[in-house]
Design a protein that fits this description.
By secondary structure, the chain is α+β, with helices and mostly antiparallel strands. The protein is globular, with a radius of gyration of 24 Å. It has a seven-stranded mixed β-sheet. It has a five-stranded parallel β-sheet with strand order 7-6-5-11-23, with helices on one face. The protein folds into three domains: 68 residues, Alpha-Beta Plaits (2-Layer Sandwich); 233 residues, FAD/NAD(P)-binding domain (3-Layer(bba) Sandwich), CATH 3.50.50; 179 residues, no CATH class. The structure holds flavin-adenine dinucleotide. The site of flavin-adenine dinucleotide has 45 residues, from helix 2, strand 6, strand 17 and helix 11.
């Protein structure tokens, strides 16, 4: 196969791709698959493709610019009968993909997930969004699929890794749209990712993976050398050879348990902020001049004494209540596959250095509680961006998409004077890049759960540095952020376990 890069086609001319490839090679081809597609809307919008092409005498074309050999790696794990048991805590992306890999390799795998399966979880989340009744074990953060289930399910990552194809293939094999394999900024949407995850779970069950939903791991049994020997839940004690910890960043009780067990953790920097919402048409006008029918994204950064950046942008999405604890307020964003709410939202976050807090979880909780106390409810805080700049309060330019209503609040009260100055400079900067950003936008918050305030440090064997056979993974361990990077981290952990086993067998 050949890889041909940088093939440009006008929008709506996608069906001419084969013709274009044959023109470049000046030869008929057998078949092709799209490897990457991105939109370049700087002038007249064009799609830029990379394609894998099956053509005879491929070596003849290698001297041409932008053409190289292409071989897709077979990354399937080799199956062997293995007697070891792996227990996985948490069924988010890191849990899902580590489970898949370990089952594929022949291990006994048991997954414990404190939340419920998707159908029941959907009902709990709906009840919260409509009636404000929060289930602390079944919500936007917790349950089958983890934190990314009620999300935009963007698959963006800056990482380059052959296992990304493995992840995308698995998503497509379980119902994902073929285009996620190649779209530059692919997203699945909450409606689709829920079906895909449920299908992966069913498949894992079929392959022999054991699941314990609504069962939280509350304690660990360590031997004299601190090896994890068993996990404890309210329902029982379960022995294991390997314990994979993929609990995300919001399971505070589990982090408390890890502290009690002296599992080594280090503080790390975090970020706090709020969501901003704008009419989607404002973003589309700026990004593509409305020349293509799609809800567009933006990525904004502002360099200052502390960095400010946009995060987890959800075009055509809604702002969601993402708290997992009662009497707190936390925002995040999600979109359906169609991205058609008409409103764009994104987090705007400011960096908080680890020197600024002693306990990061407590630092974030104080902000979440302050927001709840102000509204005495799960209503989010809100303000027009222009009013924030002037320290004023006027009715919002438009109603926020946040389902539990919002209450007017001066965000100048939430941040320090220094943070407010930096955030305001950032807003001026963003307004230069997207004119109307200040005048047309509203703020809804607070947003506090963008990353974990600690790292559960690993050694070269991917185990906790002071607790052998405990493998911290994903966002809660501080080794991932986002669906794809956490899925990759789960695969990395599984591969470490598989290769250690194989070395022992030699
Ligand atoms: C609303 C929202 C929107 C998002 N949108 C995107 C997006 O569009 N794209 C993207 O890349 N990322 C997005 N993210 C971030 C992404 O979801 C996370 O980075 C990712 O899910 C982290 O994966 P993980 O496997 O580390 O943990 P998580 O997905 O957080 O899963 C951890 C799981 O562990 C369970 N658990 C915790 N403690 C225990 C215990 N003691 N016993 C048993 N189970 C336990 C929890 O119930 C949870 O289900 C979003 C997050 C949220 C909240």
């Amino acid at each position: 196969m050949l890889l041909i890069s940088d093939i440009k086609l006008k929008i709506h001319e996608e069906d001419r791709l084969q013709e274009k490839i044959e023109k470049i090679l000046n030869h008929p081809i057998r078949s092709f698959t799209i490897r990457k597609r991105s939109l370049d809307a700087r002038k007249e919008p064009v799609y830029v493709y990379s394609v894998a092409v099956d053509v005879e005498h491929e070596e003849r074309y290698l001297k041409k610019k932008g053409i190289s050999f292409y071989r897709k790696k077979d990354l399937k794990a080799e199956y062997k009968e293995r007697n070891e048991t792996c227990i996985i805590a948490g069924y988010g992306p890191s849990g899902i993909f580590s489970a898949w890999r370990l089952i594929e390799a022949g291990y006994h795998v048991t997954v414990f997930e404190k939340g419920k399966r998707i159908k029941e979880r959907e009902a709990d989340v709906k009840r919260f969004f409509e009636e404000g009744i929060l289930d602390e074990d079944s919500n936007v953060q917790f349950g089958e699929g983890g934190a990314g289930t009620f999300s935009d399910a963007k698959l963006t990552t800056r990482l380059k890794d052959p296992y990304i194809d493995f992840i995308l293939d698995l998503l497509v094999e379980h119902g994902g749209n073929e285009s996620i394999r190649y779209e530059h900024h692919a997203h699945i949407g909450t409606d689709q990712i829920r079906k895909i995850i449920a299908a992966i779970t069913d498949d894992l069950i079929e392959k022999g993976c054991e699941f314990h939903f609504s069962e939280e791991i509350t304690d660990l049994e360590l031997d004299e050398e601190r090896h994890v020997r068993a996990v404890i839940t309210k329902q029982g004690r379960y022995q294991c050879d390997h314990f994979l910890l993929g609990i995300g960043h919001s399971a505070h009780a589990t982090f408390e348990m890890l502290k009690r067990k002296d599992v080594y953790m280090e503080k790390k920097d975090i970020a706090v902020g709020f969501r901003v919402e704008h009419p989607q048409s404002l973003i589309d006008e700026r990004q593509t001049g409305n020349k293509i029918e799609a809800a567009n994204e933006y990525f904004l950064t502002h360099k200052d004494t502390k960095g400010v950046y946009s995060f987890c942008m959800c075009p055509g999405g809604i702002v969601v209540p993402a708290m997992s604890e009662k009497q707190t307020v936390v925002t995040n964003g999600m979109s359906y596959a169609a991205r058609d709410s008409g409103t764009a939202n994104s987090a705007i976050l400011i960096q908080v250095k680890q020197e600024e807090f002693s306990d990061g979880f407590e630092y974030l909780k104080q902000i979440e509680k302050k927001a709840y106390e102000y509204s005495s409810s799960y209503q989010a805080l809100s303000q027009n961006i222009g009013d924030y700049m002037n320290g004023e309060l006027h009715p919002l330019h438009f109603t926020s998409t946040y389902p539990l209503k919002t209450v007017l609040y001066d965000f100048n009260e939430l941040f320090t004077e220094e943070e407010n100055e930096i955030l305001k400079r950032a807003f001026f900067d963003f307004d230069r890049k997207i004119p109307g950003f200040i005048e047309k936008g509203i703020m809804v918050g607070p947003e506090t759960r963008s990353s974990c305030p600690v790292r559960i440090v690993r050694n070269e064997k991917m185990e906790s540095v002071n607790t052998p056979k405990l493998y911290p993974m994903g966002e809660g361990a501080g080794y991932g952020g986002g669906i794809v990077s956490c899925a990759l981290d789960g695969i990395r952990i599984a591969n470490a376990i598989i290769s250690e086993y194989e070395q022992i067998q030699k």
